[in-house]
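Side project, low priority. Logging it here so it doesn't get lost.
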Amino acid sequence: MSAQSKSSAAPSPEDDSAVNEPAVRRPFFSQVLAELGRVVWPSRQQLFSESVSVILMVAMSAAAVAASNRLFSWISNRVFLG
């Protein structure tokens, strides 16, 4: 290869990212802050009510899994242990 063809080759992405890393971070963080400014944050009452509903649904799901576990455990004990 000649020296001219080497110089006209495009630089690899690894070389480019190390040089431009600090310049890329600034716009990223400013864009993150701009997006956080557009977020519609819930009120205290809405946060409380939705948290309670999530906790209740998790508790109900855990109870359903526990009940089915006990049922299948009882059935398997009757079948296999006589």
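Brief comment: The chain has one domain: 13-81.
Revisit when time allows.
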